[in-house]
Amino acid sequence: MTDNELREAAGQFFWWHSIRLRDNVVTPGISGENAAISVMGIPDDLTGVSVLDVGCWDGYYSFECEKRGADRVVASDIWETSGRDAFDFAHHELDSKVEPLESSVYDLDPDYAGRFDLVLFLGVLYHLKHPLLALEKIASCTKPGGRIIVDTIIDIKSQLNLQPVMIFHPGSEVSDDPTTWWSPNPAAVAMMLGASGCLEVTNVTRLYSGNRSVFHAIKASDAECEERARQEYKDRHRQIFYGPWPGK
Fold first, then answer.
1. Running DSSP on this structure, what letter comes out for residue 125?
2. What is the CATH number of the domain that holds 213?
3. How many structural domains does the chain have?
4. Angle CA(190)–CA(149)–CA(185) in degrees, nearest 5?
5. Could you list the residue range(s) of the whole structural domain that residue 69 is in?
6. Is the model's pTM score more than 0.85?
7. Fewest 10 Å CB contacts: which of 94, 119, 192, 241?
């Protein structure tokens, strides 16, 4: 297939990202090539690292991690908006070893998905009705000491508020997008990640593209997560807590 034929074939699909398929062939993505990857803080060298890309869409970040030497990359999505054709097309043309996983974030389970050194959760959180549950699910698929990268819209008005705030959007208030449910402030993102089992949370890119922010979080050890859950149960039920920890 010539370069022109490849461009024509790629043009049949909807692309959010511009993915370089060959030196002279880039998919016609809405967001532009490499539009935001520089602010995500993804390590340049991923040699030996396992990666889970949650909400991968057309696979841009999954393929990029593969290029950076990741040992294993799993690309997870439900592909409900525009289907999986664009992902499959790029996967084939790049001769990629990325593993597609058709799963809702709410259904992610380490028993079948595994646990990973690096989990990407980019441009997904604010689209979900249940963001804390989603963070708990991706944290469960992160190895102890592993890194979670979250890219999300934030609430600008409460950006400097140290109290966690999350604005609910029942309609199309944000960028005329009815799929945006929430705008958390940075404190809310950090505290939700902490409640999901992360020890360290860093706001690595405080603001880009007007209302977006990037966070890195380090997953606690299994023992630390167990102790946190135990203490949280006691704290939240301290008035009625008389017996042993459930299951003990």
1. G
2. 3.40.50.150
3. 1
4. 30
5. 40-236
6. yes
7. 241
